[in-house]
Amino acid sequence: MNARELRTPLLAVRDLAVHFDAPHSASGVARAVDGVGFEVGEGEVLALFGESGSGKSVTARAILGLVERPGRLVAGSIRFAGRELVGLAESDYRRVRGREIALVFQDPAAALNPVLTLGEQLCEAPRAHLGLTAAAARERATALLGELGFDGDSGWLARFPHQLSGGQRQRAALAQALLCEPKLVLADEPTTALDPTLVATVVELLRRRASERGTGVLWITHDLRVARSIASRAVVLYAGRVVETGPLAELSRSPRHPYTRALFDARPSATRRGSPLLAPQGSAGDPSAWPSGCRFHPRCPFADAACAAIEPALARGVACHHPLAEAGR
Ligand code: SF4
After folding, report:
1. What global pTM score does this model have?
2. d(CA 104, CA 172)
3. Is the CB of 256 under 6 A from ligand 1?
4. If you ran DSSP here, which 8-state letter would residue 254 be given?
């Protein structure tokens, strides 16, 4: 962790809860995000891990004020650059979105308009938000596409999204997110459609933005291999709750929550040879009826009666009644 991270939490999420109406369930409510908290420092890349349905993407949408009915933010605080975002008027939120906080979608189709050329959609925000001339915006867009592995031919800006490959669309969507130099980038599985060389290009670009310009990055993923190459710290989500947090190298070497171990066991590790593998079986379950006690207990090989009855609090970075290292497992 560098000095910049220690000084300034660029983003501080506290006790965030986002629920969805679930009229066909007994409880009537799906608790997709249920008391989540973490911080991202200036110039820090924080990995937010979890399997599908853990609440990662809903958390990102909540930060951007994009939770829509039947969902609603029911509790918590989201402070960004010293300002509370919860309760912000939509007109003010529009100024934050794109200009100060950018979201890179997993699916570039969600970001790119199919009937506009790349030039039309990439240059619009820098002109509107930064007051650049059309020529300066095109120059900036062409340079950024170059950094992202597009060759120097400025003809890219005349193309429509359907004239690009999947990987090119994904990088164009990333360029669109970065063009206004946001303070914070929420990157939701941004490298899924890319081959390994281009993954390295994207990782290197975001790492440089973080270290040279102080950009904070929330790297939302289930891919530990890529996360290790970019993030310094990690937060692990399970069933809408934070179950473990800490330096990524430490979590990788010596995870304390059985679910974190299960995530890492999906990729064999030379440093933990000899530890029993904990491949996760089944799924986390239904957010309208999370299991009692520890939500991981139906899948946990170490569960006991206390685990099924009492929900463990997050203490010293882990939410588990029997953390692995302390229990000698
Ligand atoms: Fe497993 Fe119990 Fe820890 Fe939950 S609290 S992860 S069930 S040992």
Report:
1. 0.89
2. 10
3. no
4. S
**Tell me: the pLDDT tens digits for 141-160?**
999 999 888 987 668 999 99
pLDDT > 70? residue 2 = no
Task: Note whether 155 and 162 are within 8 A (CB).
Answer: no
**Residue ranges covered by each domain of the chain:** 3-100+182-327
For residue 285, the tally of other CB atoms under 10 A from its CB is 15
- 159 burial type by CB count under 10 A (0-12 exposed, 13-18 middle, 19+ buried): middle
Of the candidates 105, 18, 15, the one whose C-alpha atom is nearest the C-alpha of residue 54 is 18
Six-digit token string for 30: 């799906």
Distances (CA, A) of 126 to 7, 134, 157: 29, 9, 14
Range 3-100+182-327 has CATH code 2.80.10.50: no
- Ligand 1 pocket check: which of 236, 241, 307, 310 to mutate, most ligand atoms within 8 Å of Cβ? 307
Reduced to 3 DSSP states, what percent helix, strand and coil does the chain have, rounded to the nearest 5?
Answer: 35, 20, 40
Looking at this protein, which amino acid is placed at residue 56? K
From 297, 299, 314, the mutation candidate for ligand 1 (largest count of ligand atoms within 8 A of CB) is 297
The reply to whether ligand 1 has any atom less than 6 angstroms from the CB of 303 is yes
Task: Encode pLDDT of 78-107 as tens digits.
Answer: 999 999 999 999 999 998 988 899 998 777
Rg over alpha carbons for the chain, rounded to the nearest Å, is: 21
Q: Say whether the peptide bond before residue 268 is cis (omega within 30 degrees of 0).
A: no
Contact present, 45 and 190 (Cβ < 8 Å)? no
Amino acid (one-letter) located at 164: L
Q: For helices 118-130 and 134-147, what crossing angle results, to 10°?
A: 120
